[in-house]
Design a protein that fits this description.
Helix 2 runs parallel beside helix 15 and helix 3 packs across helix 4. The protein is globular and about 70 Å long. It has helices at about 5-15, 15-25, 50-60, 85-95, 115-125, 130, 160-165, 185-195, 195-210, 215-225, 255-270, 295-300, 345-350, 350-360, 375-385, 415-420, and strands at about 30-35, 70-75, 100-105, 135, 140-145, 155-160, 165-170, 235-240, 245-250, 275-285, 315-320, 340-345, 375, 400, 410, 425-435, 435-440, 440. By secondary structure, the protein is α/β, with parallel strands linked by helices. The relative contact order is 0.16. The model has no long low-confidence stretch (mean pLDDT about 90). Strands 13-12-11-10-14-15-1-16 form an 8-stranded mixed sheet. A 6-stranded mixed sheet has the order 4-3-2-7-8-9, sandwiched between helices. A two-stranded antiparallel ribbon has the order 5-6. This is DUF362 domain-containing protein. It comes from Haloarcula terrestris.
Length: about 450
């Protein structure tokens, strides 16, 4: 289906603005100002990224790696700050130590579960062979390296990585969108699910229904550390601005204990919405490089399609309206079911095959269920606000954010602007003014940094 056919299909699914207004009335909408979260951060300077990454590699032991041996560097599909520079610096440090590095995609089924698709994802994140100075070996082939002792679950890993003399995953440690546990998204998960490619990811998600990720990932990580030449990992932690604040070499013995400590730091630093109760949040975009579920469940307080996991306690958002997919998500609309209403642009950009493969692999097919589709932003906002009860424009609590990763500056309704004036962690940047539309579409720019 070409772009024009996709747009026709989207239009067929979407409801015109006049129909929404006829059904809901033509209510006044709240004005929106701009507020800013006040964060104290200490990011690593851009010029120092290389030295921090080099020290992370130098802290690992290569005692059992033969001179000139191949070192497989696992890189994922997330939008990690400074990723090309970090990977290139790790490549240089490994080369300087006398070994032959290569990169392999450690991203499960992402990229449409094809080797070319995963190479393309890395390239669009800036991780190309020319940028990092080494070969990228991208296939979906895996090797079974063992089976779990109690449940006899096959443990698989990328065949290029298995054949190498050493393995180093490079990943950000952060809260996961689907589960809570001592280790969540980070080095261990990259080994178990990312390095397992589509087959490993599917096995893990299928067994997680009864086993749970919080128990599975530590157990399989331990088995992989015993079976494969994993010399350690390069862990990254980001601050509220998604700037790199820590790059650390983690030895195999620290994949669980040290990761747990880094996860606690990541929880403290992750950007969050500054209010616990909200009537409507408008997100300008969602995508896989923003969060594995498109919209970070830890930010929106919803986990409607996770595997036997409770939702976060806060925030409580009555309605979510999502406007578009990111370009880098390549039509993967995983997690679109978190929203209550979506713009027709999402349907026009949606790649049904890629989205479904991701959902099937993750055993979360409810995540790609389409919410009601509307033709314009005004229709989406009216539909959302008209279904939460009586709305007073002076008291309704509305936010608009770029996405769940970029939360420094936010559009906010008058009630939230007044609250912001009284808080030390918030600053009012612009006073509220009427929402402006052009043919029903929002005209004010996204507040993405």
């Amino acid at each position: 289906m070409d772009a024009s056919d996709q747009q026709i299909a989207a239009s067929a699914l979407s409801v015109p603005e006049e129909t929404i207004v006829e059904a809901c009335g033509d209510p006044p909408l709240p004005e929106l100002g701009v507020i800013e979260q006040v964060w104290e951060t200490d990011p690593i300077a851009t010029d120092d990224i290389e030295s921090h990454a080099a020290r992370a590699v130098e802290s690992l032991s290569f005692a059992d790696v033969p001179d000139g041996g191949e070192v497989a560097l696992g890189v994922g599909s997330r939008g990690i700050a400074n990723l090309p520079a970090i990977v290139a610096s790790v490549v240089d440090a490994v080369s300087d130590a006398g070994y032959e590095p290569f990169v392999f995609p450690a991203m499960g089924s992402h990229g449409g579960a094809t080797g070319d698709g995963q190479r393309t994802m890395l390239n669009e994140l800036g991780v190309s062979e020319s940028a990092i100075g080494c070969e990228i070996r991208s296939t979906m082939d895996v090797v079974e390296v063992g089976r779990t002792p109690d449940r006899d679950v096959p443990v698989v890993a990328d065949d290029n990585a298995v054949a190498a003399d050493a393995i180093i995953p490079i990943n950000r440690v952060k809260p996961h969108t689907d589960f809570d546990g001592p280790v969540e998204s980070g080095l261990s998960k990259m080994l178990v699910i990312g390095m397992g490619k589509q087959r490993g990811a599917q096995i893990a998600h299928k067994w997680a229904v009864d086993w749970s990720f919080r128990r599975m990932i530590p157990e399989i990580t331990g088995q992989l550390l015993e079976e494969l030449p994993i010399v350690g990992g390069v862990a990254i932690v980001e601050d509220q601005h998604d700037d790199t604040t820590l790059i650390e070499g983690v030895p195999p013995s620290g994949f669980l204990d040290r990761e747990k400590e880094l996860l606690e730091t990541a929880y403290d630093l992750m950007p969050k919405l500054p209010f616990e109760e909200l009537d409507l949040v408008v997100f300008d975009r969602q995508g896989k490089e923003i969060s594995g579920q498109g919209l970070d469940t830890n930010v929106i307080g919803r986990r409607p399609f996770s595997i036997n996991e409770p939702a976060p306690e806060t925030p409580d958002i009555k309605r979510i309206y999502t406007r578009a997919l990111t370009e880098k998500t390549h039509g993967n609309a995983m997690g679109v079911g978190s929203a209550d209403v979506i713009h027709e642009d999402i349907v026009a950009e949606l790649d049904a095959q890629t989205s479904l493969i991701n959902a099937l692999t993750a055993s979360t097919i409810r995540g790609v269920k389409l919410p009601p589709v509307v033709e314009t932003d005004r229709a989406g906002i009216v539909a959302a606000l008209s279904t939460i009860g009586v709305v007073d424009t002076d008291t309704v609590r509305v936010l608009r954010a770029a996405d769940t990763m970029h939360l420094h500056r936010l559009y906010a309704s008058p009630a939230l602007v007044e609250t912001a004036r009284e808080r030390d962690d918030l600053r009012v940047v612009e006073e509220p003014s009427p929402i402006e539309f052009d043919n029903g579409q929002l005209t004010a720019p996204s507040l993405r940094e």
